[in-house]
Amino acid sequence: MVLSWGFMLVFTAFQTMGNIEKTVLQSIRKENPSFTGEAYTSFAIIYAVFASCNWLAPSYISMTGPRVAILTGACCYVLFIGSFLYPHNALLYGASCILGLGAALIWTGHGQYLTENSDSETMSRNAGIFWAIFQTSMFIGNFFVYFMFTDPEINASTRTIVFSVLTALAIIGMCVLATLRRTSTGLVLTEAEGVSSADRELQIPARSREKPLLAAWNALTDAFGLFVTPKMLLLSLTFVYTGLVLTFYSGVYSSCIGFTKALGEPRKRLVGLSGIFIGIGEVVGGAIFGIFASKVSRVCGTWTVVLTGFCVHLFAFISIFVNLPNDSPFKDTDNVGFISPSQTLAMAGSLALGFGDACFNTQVYSLLGVLFVEQSAPAFALFKFCQSVAAAVSFAYSSSVKLHIQLLILTITIVIGTVAFCYVVRVTKKEQDNATSENDPTLVTE
């Protein structure tokens, strides 16, 4: 719960900033022609550095533990949000580099810390609780933005208030994460101590007592070795899709809404409202498929949850395709889509993007926590590596590729990613059934 609420506060600041960055930087450029900072470039830098540093994050965690990594990462988020109080090209891009490093540390540390505090029966539940609480960050910041951005143009005083409040929230979140408890991971518990075999299944080995540099090197080689395993290579296709759709809903789609003049005068306020609906979808999806995972899995199974996300995201892509103009990612446009732009359909697209994203992410977290118990840090680092490489590439082309091509790319990759994920789940289930049969020949599997 401390992990969840701490992340929620930090990412209230960051996700709100990501949602409005393109819009506010455009307003800054109108007032100050010497400022040429570009939001999509900033995000591309963040995710490029994020991807690179994911290879080093397990080494850092092997020396410090996940708690220190999480706190270090949170400090980097505070610096990035605070940099917007003093708009300058070098400061924007320098803070983006720092944030990329911090993101690698905070997310890899989160994956290991969550695994250390879970067992095979509670991993899905804990991942779902985290995801639902974490994504309430989409409500708070975007409600605030919705009421602050009342005019078509965002003036300097409004921006200063918004940036100050978001920076303060990030600082509070960092303080909450500083209270995370230590986790004892070296205990080997027995049935006599009241712990089931399922609980022992996810006990993490104690951190190596090797010299720090040797431990760091071993963590790096473990990450490379894990990356080339068949299951991880297949799952990387799913990770890539989550990175592309992350780019789209966090930085591109809301900007498209804000730039579409046919949506009316309140279109800048709709940027915040879009973030709220994305958050509603994320929280509902996290609650249904995470918190109530044990009940849901008995009814439909992991692969069905991902297929649900697949169908919901296809609906979102089709609705956005017909509703918004092709040039809406770039600047204010008078053009329209295939229909007269609808505010209701735009918000429905936001809701679907959030719900489908929760379907994919809760199942990815759950699967990684069970499949790679003793390699949780490198497994989550590789997840974030693939995701952030895809996000960096996507943000790089988002400044020049029109909306319809971006939607086509998302459609192709969601098909590939969904098939790969379902195949890994099927193979894993078969291996577990075979292992059960070998351990107890009297059991007959279907």
Describe this protein's structure.
The chain has 2 domains: 1-180, Up-down Bundle (Growth Hormone, Chain: A); 212-432, MFS general substrate transporter like domains (Growth Hormone, Chain: A, Up-down Bundle), CATH 1.20.1250. The chain is built from 17 helices and no strands. It has helices at residues 2-31, 39-54, 57-64, 66-83, 89-116, 123-134, 137-148, 156-177, 197-201, 212-227, 230-259, 267-291, 293-299, 302-323, 343-371, 376-398, 403-439. 53% of the residues are buried. The model is unreliable at 185-209 (pLDDT under 50).
SSE arrangement:
Layout: H1 2-31, H2 39-54, H3 57-64, H4 66-83, H5 89-116, H6 123-134, H7 137-148, H8 156-177, H9 197-201, H10 212-227, H11 230-259, H12 267-291, H13 293-299, H14 302-323, H15 343-371, H16 376-398, H17 403-439
Helix pairs in contact: 1-4, 1-6, 1-7, 1-8, 1-11, 1-12, 2-5, 2-16, 3-4, 3-5, 3-10, 4-5, 4-8, 5-16, 6-12, 6-15, 7-12, 10-16, 11-12, 11-15, 11-16, 11-17, 12-13, 12-15, 14-15, 14-17
Features of the shown structure:
446 residues; mainly alpha; Growth Hormone, Chain: A; 2 domains; 76% helix; globular
Shape: globular
Strand content: under 5%
Most strands sheet: none
CATH top level of the largest domain?
Answer: Mainly Alpha
How many domain regions? 2
Average per-residue pLDDT, rounded, comes to 79
- The gyration radius over C-alpha positions equals 22 Å
Q: Please identify, by name, the CATH architecture of the largest domain.
A: Up-down Bundle
N-to-C series of helices and strands:
HHHHHHHHHHHHHHHHH
Give the count of helical stretches: 17
Class by alpha and beta content:
mainly alpha
Membrane topology: Multi-pass membrane protein
InterPro entries: Ion_channel_UNC-93 (IPR010291), MFS_trans_sf (IPR036259), UNC-93-like_regulator (IPR051617)
Organism: Dufourea novaeangliae (Sweat bee)
Family: Belongs to the unc-93 family.
